[in-house]
Design goal:
Blueprint lengths: L9 H16 L2 H12 L4 H14 L9 H23 L1 H20 L6 H26 L2
Helix pairs in contact: 1-2, 1-3, 1-5, 1-6, 2-5, 3-4, 3-5, 4-5, 5-6
């Protein structure tokens, strides 16, 4: 499933990113507040990981493929497979670790510096929530 068309509704995109942000920030009160909802949705954090990972690692139509782009694509696929398996086999126990893994990926790959992970996650959350809202609006408009 490709996040080119987000598969999560806006409120779940918001919840998933807020949980990752709470874990990354060490906000135990917020983590506890979100934990029960996140644990009941074992596919939520893998969906968030996909929204973060896919645009960075997937083969692009914009550039000519090369050996490095195929390797990067495969690393992204493996990363997402591991997260999905982790979530499927131990959803409650896996949630904090998956959230830390997502935040680490963002800090190491997407942020200007690893210390900017929270700021980058917030920007990603806002962007992905807006994309999910746009998808919902288009679907609603099609059914009118």
């Amino acid at each position: 499933m490709s996040p080119i068309v987000p598969s999560l509704p806006p409120h779940l995109v918001q919840l998933g990113f807020d949980y990752v942000l709470a874990v990354e920030s060490g906000d135990d009160v917020q983590v506890a507040r979100f934990a029960s909802e996140v644990e009941q949705l074992p596919g939520l954090l893998p969906g968030i990981a996909e929204l973060v990972d896919f645009p960075v690692t997937a083969l692009s139509d914009d550039t000519d493929p090369c050996a490095d782009s195929f390797v990067l694509d495969e690393v992204g696929v493996i990363y997402l497979m591991v997260i999905r398996e982790w979530a499927a086999h131990a959803p409650a126990a896996a949630a904090p670790g998956i959230a830390r893994t997502i935040a680490h990926f963002v800090g190491q790959v997407l942020a200007d510096a690893p210390t900017d992970a929270v700021r980058t996650l917030q920007a990603l959350r806002d962007e992905q929530v807006e994309r999910a809202r746009a998808v919902v609006e288009k679907v609603v408009a099609l059914h009118r």
